[in-house]
Amino acid sequence: MTLEEKAGQLVQYFDFGGATVAGADTTGVDLETAIAKGDVGAMLFVTDPARINELQRIAVTKTRLKIPLLFGFDVIHGLRTIMPVPIGVAASWDPDIAEKGQAVAAAEARAVGIHWTFAPMVDITLDPRWGRMVEGAGEDPVLGSAMAAAQVRGFQGKAIGEPGHVIAGPKHFVGYGASLGGRDYDEVDLSENQLRNTYLPPFKAAIDAGAGNIMSAYMGLNGVPAAANHWLLTEILRKEWGFKGFVVSDANGVNSLEPQGMAVDQKQAAVRALEAGMDLAMSVPSGPSPMLGLVDAVRKGELDEQVLDDAVRRLLEAKFRMGLFENPYVDPAKAAKVLEDPEHRRVARLAAERSAVLLTNDAGLLPLDRKALKSIAVLGPLAASGQDTLGPWVFPANGPKAISILEGLRTKLGDGAKVEYATGVAWPTRKNRSFFDDINKPEPRLPVDEKVEFAKALDLVKSSDVTVMVLGEPQNMEGESASRSDLSLPGEQQKLLEAAIATGKPVVVVLMGVRPFNLGDARPGALLEAWYPGSEGGTAVANLLVGDAVPGGKLPFSWIGSAAQAPYTYSFLPSHQPAGADTRYWNEDNSPTWPFGYGLSYTSFAYDDVKVDRAAIKRGEAVTVSFVLRNTGARVGDEVAQLYLHQRTGTSSRPVRQLKKFARVTLKPGESRRMQFTLSAEDLRYWSDATKSWIQDRSTFDIWVGGNSQAQATTRFAVVE
Ligand code: GLC
């Protein structure tokens, strides 16, 4: 390969179809000419099989070496069939449904000619102001690691190259969820203690599950941009973890090293990224990729050609493993069939049902008694919006179809009861424009006369047996560049909620969104967190509200009372004043409204007879904790049994509680089951900043098992030598 051909393999361009995105002109490079010249190795944002074949044909017929292109895309929670947003699937605490959902996404992606997805997003975050919480699995490294590994298995199948599967690209390496102030794109400062014990583990789990790619983050980590961070991309990723796949930058991540002050020009940006361990530069084609400057850099001795060869080899290996040299094209006819597979929507509905979290259910308002109900009011702009039911990172060009909650309720209840709708309030709007509005061009939100609509909505509440209000944030208020400084319901939704409750009629609130909204003193009869429930969201929510499905989800983050308390985690250190942990502010408590791992059901559960098989073990040995879980209610239901641990003393101070094990089980009324979790030495090791190493201490360990992070059923054991 010539130097030019090598450098070309490290170039990835967006194809936005000529749209201007976030003010950036995306037509500075003629993509087809660049591909024919051998200056492109990969593309993204192309999902039409005919267009993929067209660009692929140029690469494999017009270039000297005929190397096929690698096509990547953000298939974060589906392509045509949309699963609940990843934080919602994490709330199912069911790695199996996470795997199944991403296997559906992979099948649809591969069918249209996509070889690689920029997912799972595995960023831990303790800050709900950060809009991208929606894409991850919340605040906990154990839940986050389980979801990361499950999604990689779903995307890749048993091995990279398996038909109907794609390369998984966990992102954003690393620490992006700790952006200062929850402000997307701002810098991150994390100690090695936090990185090793909290932010890195989900990436390690994804790589141990076989992930073939890693995407580096945008931001400066401890002052060094992730895209040129040798400690991250080489010391940790390749030397410590033995990662053999390829690393891609985030969008313009290599280009941006210049404005980040890490390079005097685009050529040096490419050199510094490559020397740190970067392989592929993802760029908006406003101008030539920085990677093309590597030719000159090698010629002038500014970069060792071996470094270039290593990066090129990793990309070629990915293309070989995906079989692209033998089969570079895709069959559009086959694609259409895969995209319409009804099994995909069944998985989406199941995932949405298992993701929902029941937060309150006063006097058993839910499940609704469909026989007795004659009239139901459905309120709120989100209730009737299929597009918002899908959540962010969904592109209309891929033809996703969603059942809105209103449609779901009409289908489920419309025969026996009158289901009437009123928007009640205008669409809440952002102060600034989301660049996704450039890409997605959402249909205009029709203006409403709020006074008229508000009054109409309240009349409907008064004349109905029950009201279902769908409240939350439109899809462009969460996700990338969607940070928000407060947790109230945007627009006039809170007023509508309070007015509806004040009528004295029963009100059920279904939350659509991800932020732990602060509903003030408003206390609806029942509160169900549905996240953005995806293509089958309306059907799933209707099933949950009438009891054809039973909520079993649990919060993947602490539902904090106000954004001002972020960042927050349940897994905090005891401090020198443990007793005051919940009252650090003089003006309000800082205990969460609902704790990490919390969620109700239509039945109830009890935990008894918690015990360990050995009260004392040696370092390196395992201990098994067993307990009896019983369904003490009158309905079948799912419980997520969780095991939390506290190490009383150690080389470092250890968190008051840490999730270590969990399992979701279904029990019939009255059924009880003895369950057990085994803690290995691995579960007891942690990174200590005192020794700068992974260690296991001798200590006494408290154990709690229960249905959330405030579980009370307890036992203990000791590591004695
Ligand atoms: C975006 C995101 C990243 C995504 C990439 C390609 O800016 O940060 O998550 O995969 O660009 O769309």
- How much of the residues is beta strand, in percent? 15-25%
CATH architecture of the largest domain: Alpha-Beta Barrel
> What would you call the structural class?
alpha/beta
Largest sheet: 6 strands, parallel
- The domain tally reads 3
Bound molecules: alpha-D-glucopyranose
* CATH superfamily placement of the largest domain: Glycoside hydrolase, family 3, N-terminal domain
Word description of this protein:
The protein has 21 helices and 26 strands. It has three domains: 3-336, TIM Barrel (Alpha-Beta Barrel), CATH 3.20.20.300; 345-565, 3-Layer(aba) Sandwich (Rossmann fold), CATH 3.40.50; 605-720, Sandwich (Immunoglobulin-like). 28% of the residues lie in helices and 18% in strands. Helix 5 runs parallel beside helix 6, helix 5 runs antiparallel to helix 13 (332-339) and helix 6 runs parallel beside helix 8. It is α/β, with parallel strands linked by helices. A six-stranded parallel beta sheet has the order 5-4-3-2-1-10. A six-stranded mixed beta sheet has the order 11-16-15-14-12-13, sandwiched between helices. Residues 74, 118, 171, 250-251, 480 line the site of alpha-D-glucopyranose (GLC). Alpha-D-glucopyranose is lined by residues 74, 118, 171, 250-251, 480.
